[in-house]
Amino acid sequence: MSPSPLLHVHAVRKQFGKQVTAAGVDLQVANGEFFTMLGPSGSGKSTILRMIAGLEHPDSGRILINGQDVTDLPPWRRDLGMVFQQYANFPHMTVAQNIAYGLRRRKLDREAVRKRVSELLDLVSLPGFEERPVTRLSGGEQQRVAIARALAPRPRLLLLDEPLSALDEKIRREMQAQLKDIQRVTGTAFVYVTHDQEEALTMSDRVAVLNWGHLVQVDEPHALFRHPRTKFVATFFRGSNVVEGKLVGQGRSSIFECSAFRVALPELPSKFAHPPAVAIRGEDLRINGHPSPEDITFDAVLERVVYRGVYTDYQLRLVDGQVVTASATSGQNLPAGQKVQVAVRPEGITPLQAEPA
Ligand SMILES: Nc1ncnc2c1ncn2[C@@H]1O[C@H](COP(=O)(O)OP(=O)(O)OP(=O)(O)O)[C@@H](O)[C@H]1O
Ligand SMILES: [Mg+2]
């Protein structure tokens, strides 16, 4: 991270009654970065975003934008734009009037406004839409107008709270790609809120996973997906298995042991999960293959085979009754009830640490 990030949220706390919605949140977003907050309903995503926006005041902690402490500044003095789930356009205005509204604080002449509106409509792929009444547009189009309006004054930071969740699946996917393009072309930093893991993984430079007001893990999508840090993160991403066991050896050495296998962990997290547990992605579990010498192998009983299109899931019961799911693209014709050999590379086994308290 560069020495002076565009956005610095420092030790921010917020509580509503007994409900802690931000439990000392620290995060930094760089210029031009696509940063996503991902978490289940009620985890505090919107509250944190609203504090960055200035719509909510933290109980303690500071918010800095461009090195300036903006904690006590109103939203319009923070050099940022906002887009919400509900298209917040003015219904009685045309598309051009809506976008120009975002420019009202800039003293621009009519021609400059016209030019900027046209530029923004090109950017959001709605060229020539100036005179349309905004209410006649489809949901996806209205949201693009809202994005154009928010970007009109060229903020360095755009905050987006589930902007695509009201759209149907197909349009949502198209808009994901389009938003990512807009972000890249304009170089605006995005802080994006979603509860959709796929959206977070496909669009973001970094993702912060939130649970009960805690940032549980902040990582690049690949690292987050491959190496979840806690059980919460592992189970949040479909397809990860959590296997419980114990740590064995002298002085809590780094050997993890469960009923099926033993594995030496290269490093132990400072606060290991209790009970000790590791995460393994379903795609990393291989059934009846040709294990290499460094692979960890174990026996399991194949309980169920579930065809899922691209993947086939194999539910495997370990000796102590724990169930894990292996996923493979090439469906093997294996009857349920039989014993199989399972192999996994040691790098595919991620030690889990305790959830933040
Ligand atoms: N103004 C408020 N007054 C009281 N409680 C609030 C207020 N705003 C948020 N909360 C509570 O804080 C918690 C977090 O809410 P928040 O809206 O930040 O979650 P979220 O992660 O955005 O959830 P969702 O995915 O459902 O939008 C919730 O329990 C919510 O009820
Ligand atoms: Mg929300």
TrEMBL record:
One Gene Ontology cellular component:
ATP-binding cassette (ABC) transporter complex
Q: Name one GO molecular function term.
A: transmembrane transporter activity
Keyword entries, A-Z: ATP-binding, Nucleotide-binding, Transport
Statement: the UniProt record of this protein carries the keyword Protein biosynthesis: no
| Domain ABC transporter as annotated: residue spans | 7-237
* Pfam families per the UniProt record, alphabetical: ABC_tran, TOBE_2
- Top-rank taxon: Bacteria
- What Gene Ontology terms for biological process does this UniProt record contain? putrescine transport
Instruction: Spell out the family assignment given in the record's similarity comment.
Output: Belongs to the ABC transporter superfamily.
Task: Report the protein name in the record.
Answer: ABC transporter ATP-binding protein
Please tell me the species this chain comes from.
Answer: Microvirga aerilata
